[in-house]
Amino acid sequence: MTGFDQAELKLLTDLIQERFGLMFNGIRMEILESRLRPRLRELRLTTLRDYYHYLRFHPDREAEFARLPAMVTNNETYFFRETHQFDLLIHHVIPERRALLRDRPLRLLSAGCSSGEEPYSLSIALHNAGLPLAGMSWEIDACDLNPERIARAHEALYAESSLRACDAEARRRYFTQEAGGFRLKQKYREKVRCFPSNLLAPNGALGWAIYDAILCRNLLIYFSEDAFAAAIGLFARSLAPGGYLFLGHSESLLDRKTSFAPAMLGGAVVYRKLEAA
Amino acid sequence: MSTPAERLAALDAAARGPEREGAILLALEDEALTVRDRAIRLAARYVEPAVLGALVADGEHAVRRNAGLSALERQGPYAVPHLTVMLGASDPELVMFALQSLARIGYPPAGRSILPLLHHADPNVAQSAIEAVGQLRTREAVPALLKLVEGELWLQLAAINALGAIGAAEAVTPLLALVPDSVLAEPAVQALRTIAAPESLEPLLRVLPAVRERALRDPLLLAVAVVIDFHPDPVPLLARAGPELAASAEFVAYLAQALAALPAAGDMDGEGDSLQRAAATLAVAAGIEALEPDLLARLATDADAIWLEGVFHRFPDALAAHRPRLLGHPDPDVRGGVLRAARFEEHELPELYEHLEDTHSRVRAAACYAMGRLELDSTAPLLVERLRRGDRAEQAAAAQALGRLSADALTDLESCLRADADETVLMLALEVLSTCPVPAFEPRVLQLAEDRRPAVRRAGLRAAARVTGARADVLLLRALADRDQATQVDALELMVARGGEKSVAVLVAMLGTSDSLRFHVIRALGQCRAQAGATRLRDLLPQCAPHEQLQIVAALIRIAPPWIGTFLRERLGDSEVEMRRMAAQGLADLAEEHELPVLLPLAEDADWNIRNEVARGLGRLARPVTRQVLLALARDVEPVVAATARAALERLQPEAIRIPA
Ligand SMILES: C[S@@+](CC[C@H](N)C(=O)[O-])C[C@H]1O[C@@H](n2cnc3c(N)ncnc32)[C@H](O)[C@@H]1O
After folding, report:
1. For B623, phi and psi rounded to 5 degrees?
2. Residue A114 region, left (φ>0) first, then alpha (ψ -120 to 50), else beta?
3. Distance set, CA A72 to CA A13, B264, B401 (Å)
4. CB B293 within 8 A of CB B329
5. Best mutation site among A1, A11, A166 for testing chain B: the one with the most B CBs within 10 Å?
């Protein structure tokens, strides 16, 4: 048989959604398939239904559940993705919050950071910002569900595909080339803290009401309604009053009742936490 | 004011009561999307097309109209007769809606009723009709579409797309006339690509180098590649076109660029990837020598580029002509690539031997690979030598090559099986013996199957499984209790592959132990369809954990003993829904016509998966008497069920669409 059977796929994705709140409508089935096939072979199972039964009833099911999200989520990311949001941060958000930042560092969170390309790009952008940041210090927190991604972020060694938006100049300035790929220079790794955390089962690693801005890009598209709402609630709690939330270009809070108000910054929609929330 | 969640709950409750239809119709106008969505699903299932049609006809209320349409569409073939009636409505907007819904439902017999609308006076209606016959692939529409290609711009565009979707070879000449100099060149090229007619190859090859804008050139290149793929004999044409293509530096640079194109991020349809492949196909097939080194180096270094080997094998001539030059290329990866991609003959062996001495191990490995493809026993001694002394890549390539030789040629392997042999060498030699058993080595293989080192032991077991006789049976049996779980399961699989009554007897006996291996034993019995294990499996059922129970039922479904029907019917009464689902699956796979009375009531089951199995089973049986049940399932609230039921309906003899009076 080629391809997974639709009914079997529904059994599995419903189960995953029930467990993790992740939604699979948006994921290409071939991706799901190519990720799960090798695992089925390892467990010596044949069909997706076998695997579903395994997850429901097998004595080792909890261990399997623990590794499942990492297998099926999309990790796709690269340096300098959607950088106009970094510009908004530097030229609008930071000046607006300048007074607050006299006695404490600017605090940012990259939620769903995958292997670190996003928080590190942010760090590079802050390094390059010059004037707007003069005399200011900053901290970047970055978390991801998948511990393997976080380990890569710590290693900071990247392959060509992560650098697809970098020209020769950027490669030279920010990376050193090694046998295994491109390693991000140390100075851009400082002040970036990457740690594992599931946004849907927060482990307390995220700060409470402390971040000036949160970037959560290209993962809420995979979330179900409920999971989406839970994540937004978490961001509302983690942001300092008046803090900003940046979403990916196909994600939006419009049409939803949340503790955020949409704001137009430099021609783009961002979300600002309501003062009272 | 109630919340959406409350209204949703109220709707679900009403859907089970006598006021169902009224509640559903009202909810179709609900302001909350979630409520409307549910109402649409329910309407598709419980509201007749005529009622929904009336909602749609009432143009006043846009939300309700859209919801009604969505529900009609979800009803699938069931709604087709009514939608066909709507085609005669006087309101052009309504006609358009009906056309779009028919197209999306995708029930091909509906296409014929659309033909009269292709020349409708209202251009919007005509356009929707053209798009619909395209989506439904209505061949009868081709003559009319060809006329429309000459007509007004918008309809021209729609007609071109439709001809492409239908795959109408008659359209090739008029479409080619639009390339490259009309505003419709790009859609015409897309259509030519989907039609993929052999006669379009030559003209397309002629325009490709002349067009400079990438917006048209990329689609042209993709079209050329697809036409080449479907062409019964493209080689002479390409050989003729080759020199001219190769002579244009501009064109070669373009192909090089296309080859280097990384698939863009979020490249959902893989178009970037296809462009690369298209460029490679053309470069190789037309023998553009300037591009060959790059392609060969990529083949040698990038594991994802294995498809390139297929391209070179399909079009071997050009490479054969350039081979001597390329084999002397300064870049070792190019040399390695040629060795993998080119075809060699027996008398060319000395040339391959030369490359066994290359300074780069990747080239040497590629030479082993090329030798393997010749399957000549005379190469055995050299390959064995590589297996023993080469580096990793060479060793693996040599082992693979040796596996393709005859058993008589493998006597030299003896040196690799000695006690003092390196572990890698030992394992690779065993791998060779598991593809090509050599009787002389059997005693040694059996010995190694009990080696201390788990990895060697497993390789030994794989080779031992090819040895006939009781000793190998005993070994495998013993390995079932190996301290290493992976080895246990390996042994189980090897036993199943070996087959034979004896192994079934062993497996049945193993059902008595209740350790983690039993799960696999149950599956194995299913895999060898062991009739002899059936009753034992059945009797074991009550004593097992749930994960084993489901596997038992699955195994019994594969074995299909004579009493399986009764057995499955009993399982339908189980309290665990997964068990009931499994039973329904079994019935869907195995039930015969006289068991329809068991299957049919399940079409009303509360569980979607069970309804889905019914639809699947009815599709397998393909009995016209089940049409009504399938039509109801085709508008199931659960889209998966509806899709299965539609597929099943297609397996029944198509019935003329009956237009309600
Ligand atoms: C497509 S990547 C996006 C990476 C980066 N934000 C960007 O835009 O390039 C999505 C990441 O979200 C992570 N993720 C998914 N669900 C998550 C959850 N519930 N909690 C934390 N991270 C999650 C995945 O592991 C994955 O690394």
Report:
1. -105, 125
2. left
3. 10, 21, 37
4. yes
5. A11
Pinpoint the residues of chain B covered by CATH 1.25.10.10: 562-661
Dihedral pair phi/psi, residue A150, rounded to 5°: -65, -40
> Domains in chain A, please, with CATH?
6-72 (1.10.155), 84-273 (3.40.50.150)
Give the ligand 1 atom nearest the CA of A110.
6
Q: How confident is the model at residue B341 (pLDDT cuts 50, 70, 90)?
A: very high
Q: Given this model, what pLDDT does residue B660 score?
A: 54
- Pick the atom of ligand 1 nearest to A78's CA: 9
Asked whether the ipTM of the predicted complex exceeds the cut of 0.95, the reply is no
Q: What is the mean pLDDT of residues B543-566?
A: 94
Which residues in chain A are contacts of B640 at CB distance < 8 A? 6-7, 10
Cα A139 to chain center, whole Å?
17
Looking at the domain covering B562-661, what would its CATH class be? mainly alpha
Q: How far apart are CA A58 and CA A56, in angstroms?
A: 6
Please give the average per-residue pLDDT across B510-515, as a whole number. 80
Mean pLDDT of A140-146: 92
What angle is formed at CA B281 by the lines to CA B278 and CA B287, rounded to 5 degrees?
135
Whole-model pTM above 0.80? no
Question: What pLDDT does B264 receive?
Answer: 46
- pLDDT over threshold 90, residue B24: yes
Interface of B with A (CB under 8 A): 34, 262, 265-266, 268, 489, 493, 516, 519-520, 523, 545-547, 550-551, 554, 578, 609, 612, 640, 643-644
Q: Higher confidence at residue B33 or residue B121?
A: B121
Position in ligand 1 atom list of the atom nearest CA A200 = 19
What is the Cα B627 distance to its own chain's centre?
29
Torsion of CA B259, B265, B268, B269, to 10 degrees: -10
* Strand (E) or helix (H) holding B447: helix B442-448
Tell me the CA–centroid distance for residue A55 and ligand 1, in Å.
23
Q: Using 50, 70 and 90 to split pLDDT, how confident is the model at B272?
A: low
Cα distance between residue A125 and residue A131, in whole Å: 12
Residue B42: pLDDT above 60? yes
Distance of alpha carbon A244 from alpha carbon A108, whole angstroms = 10
Which tokens hold the place of B80? 């087709």
Give me the mean pLDDT over the A232-252 stretch.
90
- Eight-state DSSP code of residue B77: G
In the predicted structure, residue B265 carries a pLDDT above the cut 50: no
